[in-house]
Design goal:
One of its GO terms (molecular function) is RNA binding. Helices cover 44% and strands 17% of the residues. The chain is of the alpha+beta class. Residues 66-75 have low confidence and may be disordered.
Length: 212
């Protein structure tokens, strides 16, 4: 009997060894390696855009031969220094080039929102600014401003101008002041007049005439 028991025990031990070899035990939870998430391995991607600005010679504020800081040995002209500061502040890449007919070309690359801000500042600094006064009826000013000022911001952004709307108690409440480059002002005037025309037409269509 003891011999049989010994044989059975040896068989059980052999089966246990085979099971451990064929099917090893899983590691304990505390010893498991951290799993890397796939998303963490992929670098974040931000959209980039490149836009080109052209400033005609007659609208340029500075010329290439107008250097500053010459006593310090620097040869950067005024407009180059301004663009370097704007590029640094807005975190964009900017290249300047002046053609034979003195048209200044500025190439701006970076995130769309930063490029838009850089463009606005370049035009404000390097291009001659003009100011015009546009007559806008008080009742149309709300449509010009838009909800939370969104339409006004869109107008300023698309035309690269600054549009000032006076308060209701101003001496000339019907006058809107537009400041910016010549082309931008012309575009802003056209868009403002279009808004006024549409709102005036809608007000006329809503007018009810009582029957006699």
């Amino acid at each position: 009997m003891e011999a049989c028991a010994t044989i059975i025990k040896e068989n059980i031990d052999l089966v246990s060894q085979l099971n451990e070899k064929e099917f090893p035990a899983l590691p304990k939870t505390g010893l498991s390696r951290p799993v890397k998430v796939l998303g963490a391995l992929i670098p974040s991607y931000k959209a980039k855009t490149t836009e080109v600005l052209e400033i005609p010679f007659e609208e340029r504020r500075f010329l290439n031969n107008e250097n500053d800081n010459l006593s310090a040995g620097k040869r950067y002209n005024v407009q180059s220094k301004i663009c370097m500061e704007i590029a640094k502040d807005t975190n964009v890449k900017m290249n300047l080039n002046s053609s034979k007919n003195h048209i200044l070309t500025v190439i701006v690359s970076g995130e769309p929102s930063r490029v838009a801000e850089a463009k606005r500042r370049v035009i404000a600094e390097l291009q001659h600014q003009e100011t015009v006064r546009i007559s806008v009826p008080v009742e149309c000013r709300g449509y010009l401003i838009g909800r939370k000022g969104e339409r006004l911001q869109e107008l300023e952004s698309s035309t690269m101008t600054r549009i000032s709307i006076p308060p209701h108690n101003a001496l000339d409440p019907d006058v809107v002041i537009v400041t910016g480059p010549k082309r931008g002002i012309l575009e802003a005037e056209e868009l403002i007049y279009e808004i006024v025309r549409k709102q005036s037409q809608q007000a006329f269509e809503r007018l009810s005439i009582p029957k006699i």
